[in-house]
Amino acid sequence: MRLHDLKPRPGAKHRRKRLGQGESSGHGKTSGRGGKGQTARSGSSIRIGFEGGQMPLIRRIPKRGFNNTRHGTRYLPVNLETLNRFDDGARVDEAALRSVGLANGRSDGVKILGDGELTKKLTVTAHAFSASAKAKIEAKGGTCELIAAKIVPARKSAQSPKAQ
């Protein structure tokens, strides 16, 4: 067998479907779009789950049961390399990160991730640190201060005092 004898397996290669090339092409007239209507028009697209204005199935069925995302902790990720914009020996906390635009939006706190290299000695105060970020900060002579998570009080039981 030589290089010029190599061929793809039968059925592996297909000719491109050339649409709108006349009736005898087999793909003429409506060009594979069927008859009239919304999907026959150019630029038409119907989003996933759309049912023509009828209340979609996903909104008709009841939403019940446990969902872990409601109870999870959402941290704003901040990579280590972005902390280089602070001065050497500076104290970096959530307020400082928000003021320079590194931590935007609602969250339960800030987590420092170890992506990139740190070139300065910093005192970093955050709600969470990745192991690599902590190691890199301390290798430069900086310190990592952990903020305690906000403790949300548990809900009172569903029973009212009268029911007892």
Principal-axes geometry comes out as elongated
Strand count: 6
Rounded to an integer in angstroms, the radius of gyration calculated over CA atoms is 30 Å
Classification by helices and strands: alpha/beta
CATH class of the domain at 74-146: Alpha Beta
CATH topology of the domain at 74-146: the name is Ribosomal Protein L15, Chain: K, domain 2
Rounded average pLDDT: 90
Question: What gap, in angstroms, lies between the N and C termini?
Answer: 88 Å
* Number of H/I helices: 3
Secondary-structure element series: HEEHEEEHE
Fraction of residues in H or I helices? 10-25%
As residue ranges, the low-confidence spans are none
Strand order in space, largest sheet = 1-3-5
CATH architecture of the domain at 74-146, by name, is Ribosomal Protein L15, Chain: K, domain 2
Largest sheet, strands/sense/barrel: 3 strands, parallel
Give a description of the structure:
- The chain has helices at residues 57-60, 94-99, 131-139; strands spanning 75-79, 91-92, 109-113, 123-126, 128-129, 143-146.
- The chain has 164 residues and is an alpha/beta fold.
- It has a domain at 74-146: Ribosomal Protein L15, Chain: K, domain 2.
- The strands form two sheets. It has a three-stranded parallel sheet with strand order 1-3-5.
- The longest helix is centred in the last third of the chain and has 9 residues, at 131-139.
- The model has no long low-confidence stretch (mean pLDDT 90).
